[in-house]
């Protein structure tokens, strides 16, 4: 059963964020994130890139947790905040805003005034990977960060997994923490909602990548519906 955060948890999340930004465990990812920053495309030339791992961000008392894949090379890796400065973020934050989880529909840079209410965003991997594909070893090295976030975010009632990688990462994290999971393991699908034995609900959502949004596999209405559903589930009382 989830509980509300203790007052010191937000400070602990801040300490975790500092440790995440200092991580250099994956040489391939370090090289890639820094190489991207050294030679950005013309539209971003002259901008200072973050070029470090990204911590999660949002409301420490959140009932909604969003689990993505990894920062985009010229999105979060540039701006220093998850889903910020790229097309995926444009879709995600509009949906969060429309569902009442964000105070504005756009996320442009890390100091643009965006705030999340009752929501927290994290990812399975914290560095921008080549071709958006972290290796299994890199995912395992990042997992302790997600485990610590899950421990500190005591109010979470709903987890929205953006894509199968986010879905699988959350289920692996539960098993690593010896938390109960359904058997057989639930399969990812857009709009699929699976209650966990402890009362948390896992909801699947196609990732708002351009591969999905440009092809129409994911529409704005589909994305909005997932977060409207998440809002309703988060408001339900736990058994």
Tell me the layout of helices and strands.
Layout: H1 9-21, H2 27-38, E1 57-58, E2 64-68, H3 76-79, H4 87-98, E3 119-123, H5 136-152, E4 158-162, H6 163-176, E5 193-195, E6 201-205, H7 210-213, H8 220-235
Parallel strand pairs: 2-3, 2-4, 4-6
Antiparallel strand pairs: 1-3, 5-6
Helix pairs in contact: 1-5, 4-8, 5-6
Give your account of this protein's structure.
- The protein has helices at residues 9-21, 27-38, 76-79, 87-98, 136-152, 163-176, 210-213, 220-235; strands at residues 57-58, 64-68, 119-123, 158-162, 193-195, 201-205.
- The chain starts with 8 loop residues before the first helix and ends with a helix.
- The protein has eight helices and six strands.
- The chain has 239 residues and is α/β, with parallel strands linked by helices.
- Strands 1-3-2-4-6-5 form a six-stranded mixed sheet.
- It is globular.
- Helix 5 (136-152) packs across helix 6 (163-176).
- The chain has one domain (9-235): 3-Layer(aba) Sandwich (Uracil-DNA Glycosylase, subunit E).
């Amino acid at each position: 059963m989830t509980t509300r955060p203790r007052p010191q948890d937000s400070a602990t999340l801040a300490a975790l964020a500092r440790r995440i930004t200092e991580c250099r465990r994956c040489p391939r990812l370090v090289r890639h994130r820094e190489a991207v920053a050294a030679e950005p495309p013309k539209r971003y030339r002259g901008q200072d890139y973050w070029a470090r791992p990204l911590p999660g961000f949002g409301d420490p008392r959140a009932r909604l947790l969003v689990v993505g894949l990894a920062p985009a090379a010229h999105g979060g890796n540039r701006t220093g905040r998850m889903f910020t400065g790229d097309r995926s973020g444009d879709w995600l934050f509009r949906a969060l805003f429309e569902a009442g989880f964000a105070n504005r529909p756009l996320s442009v840079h890390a100091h643009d005034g965006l705030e999340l209410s009752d929501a927290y965003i994290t990812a399975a991997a914290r560095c921008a990977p080549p071709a958006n594909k972290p290796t299994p070893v890199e995912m395992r090295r990042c997992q302790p960060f997600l485990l610590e976030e899950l421990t500190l975010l005591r109010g979470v009632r709903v987890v929205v997994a953006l894509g199968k990688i986010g879905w699988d990462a959350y289920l692996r994290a539960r098993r690593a923490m010896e938390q109960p999971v359904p058997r057989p393991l639930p399969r990812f699908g857009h709009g699929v909602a699976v209650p966990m034995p402890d009362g948390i609900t896992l909801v699947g959502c196609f990732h708002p990548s351009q591969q999905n949004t440009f092809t129409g596999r994911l529409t704005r209405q589909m994305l909005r519906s997932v977060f409207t559903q998440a809002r309703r589930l988060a408001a339900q009382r736990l058994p």
